[in-house]
Amino acid sequence: MPDTQVNMDNLSGALRRETVKKNVAAIHISGKLTLLQRKLSNVLLLNAYDALTSAPTHTIDARTLAMMVGYNSNDFDTLRASLRALAETVAEWDMLDEQGRQEWGVSSLLSFAKLKNGICEYAYSPALAQKLYDPKIYALINVQIQRNFSSGHGLALYENCYRFVRTGSTGWWALDVFRKLMGVDGSDYYGSFKHLNAKIIKPAVAEVNKSSDILIEPEFQKKGRTVTDIRFLIKGNPQKAMFEIDDEDGVRNLTIYKTLRQQGVSDRLARQWISEHGEDYVREKLEYAKGRDGVKSTLGFLSAALRDNYQAPEKKMSAVAGPSVGEAVKRRTAEQEQQDKEYEARTVERTERARRLAIVEDLVSRRNPTQRDADKRLFLSGLDNDLDREHFRAHGWRSGLNATKIFEFWEELEPEAFT
């Protein structure tokens, strides 16, 4: 989340902006969240947004939440740990109101969270909820776009730049504040601008420009030969325009929108899915999700079906012709049973791979920047073709093409990591 400040040089831990006339609040959140924790924070806010200032608490199916973020849907230990991290994370703001009066405040990011009977219930403090609800202060992150990020630094930079997309620039940030936003404050290694630029700024900028709906360019301010401040110029990425979550096309009047709402999907998420995938695609996946036996969470299954394009077995079968209706039905039933078995096997495989990838991300998050860099170099040196290497450079430890090798690599480093 952004951290912008009125022009008061001696206010500790604050960010400067170019003019105090802009009604942009400074909401600074500790940068030391992992990539998955950042994604979790954004999904929770998206789910709560429409009732952010009117409802004291918010709820979401825990399996749906896990699947949207990228956790294994049964890995409640990881989900609990991430919710605990958000409750322990401090949000701080420093702003001017419309009358030019200064306001400073601090709050935990989540005032509470609990898991009970498969439901996640959580809340924001009233003061923070008011700040997050104001579109001039906080811009919602599109959950489809955030899935593209493979590094916490890239997503953190995207979050902090996207808030300022309408003004075209973040304004100048002192390097100490930028380090804080990226979660590398207190590191002697990143106290050097050379290291900060090579290991944090350049890779994060490259990932934002490749993976998101904005293009950013860093600019630096010097005092003598020393770089003291940084800002980012921002413009839309014409190749990856963000899906607009508005109702100009009368989305709320669509039957599929009303059906989604009846299934417990929030207003904003329903509109996002329809805008992202189209009315027919969402309807097809909703019908498929309804027809599945043994699905504990229709909403969670639907989220996965939309994301991974689950196909109904009957849609894959060619028309059955035969000497009798009875034989055709038997053949169709046998084919459907086989395809169901294949589908279940693929589901188990996807679930296990997601579980292992989440473990890898957790392992990576525990290592210091120097170790992470060494791990990547070591892994790259073991890849034997250009396609694998390029895919890993683009997607990091979430490279599906290299998943098997990634698991083998980390299993060698941490023998009991996946047990």
How does this model look, in words?
The chain is an alpha+beta fold. The protein contains 17 helices and 9 strands. The protein has helices at residues 35-48, 62-69, 76-87, 126-133, 143-146, 152-162, 175-182, 193-211, 255-262, 267-277, 279-290, 298-308, 313-316, 325-366, 369-381, 386-395, 403-413, and strands at residues 26-29, 58-61, 90-96, 102-108, 112-116, 119-123, 173-174, 214-223, 226-236. It has a 3-stranded antiparallel β-sheet, covered by helices on one side. Strands 2-6-5 form a 3-stranded antiparallel β-sheet. Helix 6 (152-162) crosses helix 8 (193-211). The longest helix is centred in the C-terminal third of the chain and has 42 residues, at 325-366. The protein starts with 25 loop residues before the first strand and ends in a 6-residue tail after the last helix.
Give the helix level as a range of percent: 40-55%
CATH architecture of the largest domain: Orthogonal Bundle
What's the structural domain tally?
3
Model regions low in confidence, pLDDT < 50 over at least 5 residues: 1-25, 241-249, 315-323
Order of helices and strands: EHEHHEEEEHHHEHHEEHHHHHHHHH
**What is the CATH top level name of the largest domain?**
Mainly Alpha
Largest sheet geometry: 3 strands, antiparallel
CATH superfamily of the largest domain: Winged helix-like DNA-binding domain superfamily/Winged helix DNA-binding domain
What's the overall geometry? globular
Mean pLDDT: 76
Strand content: 5-15%
Protein name: Protein involved in initiation of plasmid replication
Region (Disordered): 317-345
InterPro entries: Initiator_Rep_WH1, WH-like_DNA-bd_sf, WH_DNA-bd_sf
GO biological process, one term: DNA replication initiation
